[in-house]
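Deliverable D5.2: sample structural annotation.
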Amino acid sequence: MTGITNIRELMSRNIRQSGILIALVALVALFTILNPSFLSPGNLTNIVLQYSYILILAIGMVIVIIGGHIDLSVGSVVALAGAVAAVLVVKNGMPWWVGVLAAIGVGLAVGVWQGFWVAYIGIPAFIVTLAGMLLFRGMTYQVLDNVSLSPFGGTYYQIANGFQNGLLGGYGYDALTLIVFGLAVAGYAFTQVRARQGALRYKQAVEAFPLFILKIVVVGAVVMWFGYQLATNRGLPNVLVILAILIIVYTVITQRSVFGRHVYAIGGNLPAAQLSGVKVKKVNFMIFVNMGLLSGIAGVVYSSRMNSAQPAAGNMFELDAIAACFIGGAAVTGGVGRVTGAMIGALIMAVMTNGMQLMGVPTSTQQIVKGLVLLLAVAFDVYNKRRAGAR
């Protein structure tokens, strides 16, 4: 009976984890059929450039959601961080790195502010960040004096618009890009093998070995194909390097660190975490400091991409980041979610938006589709929990 239960749990987990991958592949196939230029190297590069800041925000947001909270202020923080950077770099002529450090500093300060109210005063994160959404948007208007500042130019502009190309040469392609993607595939295969060995060591259910190998081969082939498309276009985007570093760092933090385990514990069962000696206030405080940090980084990337700071920048970014997390498998009640899942969820949002834009779908219809997809993703999560409870 135990073996049957383990198989059921494995199947349920695989459906949850693989379902979003299947959805992503299906979306890509659909938009490719409707518009063959969707998979062109130029458009794939544009998807990476245009939605990088949402991916960065989703990394922090999934940690917030796993901890049982929500953050509605990240779009306003992105705008404020970019505004401060623009005042220093564009208006006052300071070096680009001063703007970057200032923007990240703004994000950290916001994180400390909101973390204090949530963790130590005990105000729900929904209220604190709703207030923050209004507060930091108003501060953005004041910092910019209600006008846009541009252009950044120079190195700051290259942060989100530059490429690493031609460093190792190549015949019609950038060899460095292919090497980087090859190392990524090797790293993925290594971590999957280690995870499987760990599961077998503890006598946990795992998929059949042929299926395991097939999964690695398919993922590796798709990743290398994507890398080749970038390599034959403009090379490796700088922002993709930033994203890769953040994904690796935060995957390790959430899955391997004490802080990560405590976040899952708090979101999964707060009373049990308190009884187990978890320093709940400190962890909750750090969750929001981290979200502020990543919002500052996203502010740098977005302002660099736009080559300007605008009072209305970052509008609705928080909803895109939250949607990416829930579509990627995070649970509404907390305690469940992964950085990789949030990344896939963000890519689904990016693919939907880009594909509909190429088809000329009106913005109003795009919003309707996004809303329905988010609702269905949460409904799927609720359905899975009820089915698990019934067993």
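Annotation notes: The radius of gyration is 21 Å. Residues 158 and 291 are 24 Å apart (CA to CA).
The annotation will be released with the project's public dataset once the embargo ends.
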